[in-house]
Amino acid sequence: MAQDKCAMKVNTDSLILGSWVRPQQASSILDIGTGSGILALMLAQTSMKGASIDALEIDEDTAKQAADNVKGSPWPEKIQVFNTDLADFVPSMSYDIIVSNPPYFDTPTAFTKAYHTQTTARHTARQTAHLTPEDVFNFCVRHLNEKGSLYCVYPYQFEQKILSVADDVQLRPTRILYVKHNQSANPYLCAFQFKKAIREKPVSTETMLIRKESGEYTEEYKKLCSAFYLKF
């Protein structure tokens, strides 16, 4: 899959999210900020035959490359790429599933020239100033089916903020996956599944390690992502 024109490349976070989503019998899916198209393509692979997937990308060059990747895939009839901002997108349907691996670098973790000299496209792809959690959740609560799910990933340190934003629009967490690089590390990522809910239900939580102390991938990580990793 080509990604040379994409500001943000395919990363572990997207692979985990795309592997963790349960498309089951979802017939309508939206990918917010598709980048190279990786999440849309993963869900095209695992969703039902007649599923329709809309993929949004604000950057023109990246959107074109995503569209090319879709055309070259086994599922070109399933995916439509839209070069548009989420704020300007008017969907023609409500969705069974919405997925997003959104930008979430509010500020640089250190003062470096690399951060301040990044391209405009990369800056847009990385910064929450352009696509805030509030933007994502407000859109999703309006355009999810009543039994639909939002799947997204955010840094572990943002967990309480994300839960608060979701609660404000009455989206309830049903599953949370805490991801750690290895046993000795703290979680660095949370994957969330949210649903519209009439009443509170227990949240299913689990923790996954990516690598063993030896540096090899863990069995749980390989099992999760095995459908998308040829070397597994």
What is the fold's blueprint, element by element?
Elements: H1 12-20, E1 28-32, H2 38-46, E2 52-57, H3 60-71, E3 79-83, E4 95-100, H4 113-116, H5 120-126, H6 133-143, E5 144-155, H7 159-168, E6 171-180, E7 187-196, E8 204-209, H8 219-225
Helix pairs in contact: 1-2
Backbone shape? globular
Strand order of the largest sheet: 3-2-1-4-5-7-6-8
Distance between the termini: 18 Å
One letter per element, helices H and strands E, the order comes to: HEHEHEEHHHEHEEEH
Which key features would you list for this structure?
about 230 residues, single chain, 8-stranded mixed beta sheet, globular, Rossmann fold, alpha/beta
Characterize the structure shown.
It is a single chain. With 232 residues, this protein is α/β, with parallel strands linked by helices. The chain has a single domain, classed as Rossmann fold. Helices cover 30% and strands 26% of the residues. It contains 8 helices and 8 strands. Helix 1 runs parallel beside helix 2. The chain is globular and about 45 Å long.
In short:
The chain has helices spanning 12-20, 38-46, 60-71, 113-116, 120-126, 133-143, 159-168, 219-225, and strands spanning 28-32, 52-57, 79-83, 95-100, 144-155, 171-180, 187-196, 204-209. With 232 residues, it is α/β, with parallel strands linked by helices.
